[in-house]
Request: fold
Amino acid sequence: MNTRRKFIQCIASLAFAGFSGFIPFKLLSAKDMTALFDAKDTYGSNYEPSYLKLHRTGELKNRGMQLWEMMNRCTLCPRECERQRLRGVKGKCNATDKLQIASFNPHFGEEKELSGTRGSGTIFFSNCSLKCVFCINWEISQGGYGTVRTIDELSEMMLHLQKIGCHNINVVTPTHYIAHIILALDKAAGRGLKLPLVYNSSGWEKIEVLKLLEGVVDIYLPDFKYSNAEMANKYSPGASNYPEVTKAALLEMHRQVGVAKPAKDGLIYRGLMIRHLVMPNNVSGTKEVLEWIANNLPKDTYVNIMSQYQPVYKAVNYPEINRRITRAEYDNAIQWAKEYGMTNIEIQGWRHL
Reply:
């Protein structure tokens, strides 16, 4: 079988698996992937993830155990529900102490600086603390779709994603399982994991938890969803403190990892990458979001202004968000970013509109 045919079959398998859920470890073998890709420059910048130092000293495991104890009366997320997750009680995120994972696979739809040519090694965790009424992945985040897995299995997933050539380990909606993730990362680091860790979250993060992630996370990839507390509470029920909490979180993330800039190979290995989803009728407060970023973070902070909002899940119950955004709404967002002097904006154009 020639290389072109192998590539098409592998991509087709990935596309199918991405919609069907959990991907078996041997769906793509390392042999097949190396036939497609020259593995010699997988880590072209020779970047060493910061968590390796913590692993060598035993501090990485210690951090994981500190986070684990926070699940006793859970305070991992800003809801601080204090549910006894370690005794099997579900938190407001709908998770117990059992790790639940929806899928893991190379993802080619992330920012180009993360997906590169071999994909971002995404691990999608089930359940979520924010509960957005318009969540595009609601089956996973609120519908409970996923499979219970062990910490050892999560560690194997990380190593598998590295083995098949992914550029990073991208943990998606990780907050409520961060203890499991750090303990799995420690195990994987002991077996040769050396990919940057991407913390892909809603942005609604506690400073106390983020401080325990200092020296662990290489790339923070948070949303900045809302500038207005009333809108946050309406579309993410119970999250009225989203703007203030997220602003503090973004400042802490920037303090830890700085501005995200691509290496010579075009990939980002470290830094803060912010996402903002433009929504209909300005319910996300795009102008105020961009103004705050411009005034409180460096002008070259990476910001992806996203145009792909879709009225899914419960959006039909909210007429003001039950439509796609218009071209004018997205144009306004880009214009505001320019007016505020922002110099590192990802513009998606009209492919999503």
In short: The chain has one domain: 45-347.
